Amino acid sequence: MADSAHRLIPADFTPLPSLAATTAVTVAPDAPADAAAVGYPVAPDGALPGELGLDWESLRANGFEGKVGQTFASPRVGASDVVVVGIGADDERTEAKLRDIVAAFVRAESRAASLAFVVGDTYPLDEVAIGAAIAEAAVLTRYQYTALKTKPKHVALDTLTIVTPLDAELVGDGIRTGLVSARAATIARDLANTPPGHLTAAVFGELAASLGPKYGLEVTLADKAKLIELGCGGLLGVNAGSTEEPRMIQLHYRPGSAGDGSTPATHIALVGKGIMYDSGGISLKPSDPMHLLMKMDMGGAAAVFGAMTALQDLGCASEVTAFLMCTDNMPSGSATKLGDVLTIRGGTTVEVKNTDAEGRLVLADGLALSAELKPTAIIDIATLTGAALMALGASTAAAFGNDQPLVDKVIAAATATDEPAWQLPLEKKYRPQLDSDIADLGNLGGRFAGATTAALFLNEFVGDIPWAHLDIAGTMQVDADESWRSKGATGYGARLLTRLVVDYPTS
């Protein structure tokens, strides 16, 4: 790959190792004999599998009460281990909780390559939802980024059998959907977990160009010269201190049903922040653990790319165009300085008041390009502000928008995928904080409501087109395994955007 030689990066290194490892998820009426363990969902005081050989009194003595995600394993000699998994009360049996239950089982058997999970006919979800939730949870739970470990100890999950009396064809439909959705998220995780020296903007562009056609995507790359021609001063300004070239990666998906040349009724634009590494530029970040995580400052672009790879396989009926705005943000003698003025695509001038407020600068170019397409809707996603993390913590993203029906669709997709988002107000009273004495805008607001002032900045570049913004600074990573979210990059947004775009009304 480009620029790898001087970093001593192996020629066969891939930023997407997860694509080489697949989990086969199948449906059967009985657990296969070669399953290392069989998981049995159990409600508080519910029936216990006879294979367990224990009663409730014994389980309670060992701390198992049937709460969601509790597990108790009973090893067997010459047969599959038996694992009971708590499913909680009736009102807790949601799609999200089913993912948590499967995740608990898979984590309890982390050294097993072959598992089986029993689902009876009383779980209050349709067969497709059950198959999708189980497949997603199994794949995402067992995920680990091991591309740079010389002796990885991770055990891949080769097979998972869903044991159920339910309609196998419908459960299988759900499995296929879940595996595609999980693949989108693992692609996003791989990209965000890859070190910045191994995944530059140029390498990301090469990767997209190589993989895009496989997933039905037309890929167009804009290098530095092309970005100058396009007038993308935001992306170029952020890149000014770097020795690595920037890239704008444009992805275009057109549904197969429109192969006759007709235009789909719905055209959605996605924009992802792709800061491959964020030092803060001249406004240098402190050298603390958060700085170490700044290889994940391209999590928005990673999520968009992951989602785009899912559209063809899921039969998305909308036309979708994505802009991934990629560069690192480095300090040097050529870096953009505080007080410099950049000209965004379309002519808006921006005074740089802080070079660590760079994400909004690269997004501005992407939003302006998106608006020129006059799409049905624009959605951007970015690890944008610490203020979003401070306001909502590490489990919930901040959502903004200029169109309530669109924001409602984003929140609905977030709820369905258990990638939580909470709407914050796009408070126009704060807009004067972005005024500049010498340019159209400044790239920084006041001390307070930083997530809102950042959203207000972005709002300047979408005109009257329905637009929603997801600030995922808090949700981009977890410090430890958490249900189906594995330690490291979460891939937040890939599944959410996939659900949003695939389910978007086309009439």
Structure description:
The chain is of the alpha/beta class and 507 residues long. It has 2 domains: 181 residues, Leucine Aminopeptidase, subunit E, domain 1 (3-Layer(aba) Sandwich), CATH 3.40.220; 289 residues, Aminopeptidase. The chain contains 14 helices and 19 strands. An 8-stranded mixed beta sheet has the order 7-8-10-9-13-17-14-15, with helices on both faces. It starts with 23 loop residues before the first strand and ends in a 5-residue tail after the last helix.
Topology of this structure?
Layout: E1 24-28, E2 37-42, H1 56-61, E3 71-74, E4 81-86, H2 95-108, E5 114-118, H3 127-142, E6 159-163, H4 168-193, H5 201-211, E7 217-222, H6 224-230, H7 233-239, E8 247-253, E9 267-278, H8 289-292, H9 299-308, E10 319-329, E11 341-343, E12 349-351, H10 359-372, E13 377-382, H11 386-392, E14 397-401, H12 404-417, E15 421-423, E16 441-442, H13 450-459, E17 467-471, E18 477-478, E19 488-489, H14 494-502
Parallel strand pairs: 1-6, 2-4, 2-5, 5-6, 9-10, 9-13, 12-16, 13-17, 14-15
Antiparallel strand pairs: 3-4, 7-8, 8-10, 11-12, 14-17, 18-19
